[in-house]
Amino acid sequence: MTITIRPYEARDWADICRIHDAARLDELGGAGLLDAYLDLEATYENEGLFDDEVWVAEADGRVAGFLAGSGGEITWAYVDPALYRRGVGRALVQHVLDRATGPVELEVLEGNSARAFYEAMGFVLETTTTGKLAGNEGFQATGHTLVWRPAAASG
Which pairs from 138-143 meet CB under 8 Å and 24+ separation? Predict the structure, then answer.
């Protein structure tokens, strides 16, 4: 499988909605928050999906996942559940890390199996907080802030 990363284009909207909506169910299920589910169409504006850069992963020419964020933060990262553990998420995250000039931060919900993936990529637990669930503030959630730091430059 060949994975390529490219900037989001408007033609990707239906694909990223499909991917988000399927993968978000897995994310919330792991956190015991299925009742908090809202689809991408209902949440993308309030949660600022397009406030930063959005990258799309293609696997063999088909949209397989997407990631959004700035140089120092990953705010969205979703992979088509049919393609879990096939390198799509790794390619997306590595794309951001390769461009990072400093630490990169992200948050994962308690119970989200992606935490182990991020830790395997070098992210470490910074803090754990409980508060309102982003995107559906009527629900309480516990989240973990993970941070990746670039290796110190040798001189």
Answer: 138/36, 139/33, 139/35, 139/36, 141/31, 141/33, 141/36, 141/109, 141/110, 142/31, 142/109, 142/110, 143/107, 143/108, 143/109, 143/110
pLDDT tens readout for residues 62-95? 999 999 998 799 999 999 999 999 999 999 999 9
Distance from C-alpha of 70 to C-alpha of 6, rounded to nearest angstrom: 15
Nearest-angstrom CA–CA distance, 100 and 150: 8
- Burial of residue 116 (number of CB atoms within 10 Å: 0-12, 13-18, 19+): exposed
pLDDT of residue 154: 44
